[in-house]
Amino acid sequence: MIRQKIVAGNWKMNGSKESINALVNGLLEMKGSNSEVVIAPSFPYLSLVNELVAASDFSLAAQNVSGEVKGAYTGEVSASMLGDFDVKYVLLGHSERRTLYNETDDVVAAKVATALNAELAPILCIGETLEEREANQTFSVCERQIQAVISKVGIEAFAKIVIAYEPIWAIGTGLSASAEQAQEVHQSIRAFLAKSSEVVSQKVQILYGGSVKASTSKALFEMPDVDGALVGGASLDAKEFIAIVKAAG
Ligand code: PEP
User: Are 185 and 226 in contact (CB under 8 A)?
Assistant: First the structure.
């Protein structure tokens, strides 16, 4: 099955009004692409970026969402609020959220459910630590993280979920998984989904994330089960990000 590639930029907690204007202007130099380009600024800049990219094909993502629908949750942002700013995707289960903010598999699953109810498409991040990889637990960790979401929203919901395999040892370290390592895990993720639904498993786009650069992206994108990339650091450099999008075709 042909799956459209997605190249998503996670800007994390970076940027200012000025730098974001410059970054988006740089990105708008991009020529048409067959891939879907997604950018994920911090909450305060969603409105600004939404306006700046209005005439482009870029999609907007948020970096987090509340698992609650509305009410007395000071400091939280609801899925319906994101919808007001044309946000299409939301990153969920990013390892920084799991480790620094104690988001458990159940918390992530609840957020996935809330996002889907508000018609936001989750980009569900999963991945193992170095210790887990060395203990041959890569597949079981990824399966556990996915199973928590299947148990909450059902396998059919995965037709609307994008998975990002992000080995924690590769995030922000400059140490990307090789294309073969990524393919091996992506294939196992698809095989795991296929146990519940072959049709859904073939549809789901599985992105790789972890120190993706223009120079390494081509080999990754040639792998049959790598359907794009979630890019952190390199997405803050317009030229580098555009080169990654180009590599995706
Ligand atoms: C990320 O934070 O999702 C990520 C992949 O970061 P980096 O590309 O900087 O490793």
Answer: no
227 Cβ neighbours under 8 A, 6+ residues apart: 3, 4, 5, 6, 205, 206, 207
Query: What distances in angstroms separate CA 45 from CA 12, 16, 18, 85, one per listed residue?
Result: 12, 8, 11, 10
126 assigned to some structural domain: yes
| CATH number of the domain bearing residue 69 | 3.20.20.70
Please tell me if the CB atom of residue 172 comes closer than 6 angstroms to any atom of ligand 1: yes
Residue 37 phi, psi (nearest 5) = -100, 125
Would 1 be classed as within a structural domain?
Answer: no
Q: What is the position in ligand 1's atom list of the atom closest to the CA of 164?
A: 3
Q: What is the pLDDT of residues 134-176, one digit of tens each?
A: 999 999 999 999 999 999 999 999 999 999 999 999 999 999 9
Closest CA to 188 of 154, 234, 138, 151: 138
Residues labelled catalytic: 94, 166
Specify the pTM: 0.97
Domain that holds residue 180: 6-248
Q: Give nearest CA residue, ligand 1 atom 7.
A: 232
Tokens coding 241: 């990000």
Ligand 1 atom nearest to 233, measured from its CA: 9
Ligand 1 centroid, distance to 209 Cα (angstroms)? 6
- In whole angstroms, what is the distance from residue 206 CA to residue 35 CA? 13
Total of domains in the chain: 1
- Tell me, in angstroms, the distance from the centre of ligand 1 to residue 27's CA: 18
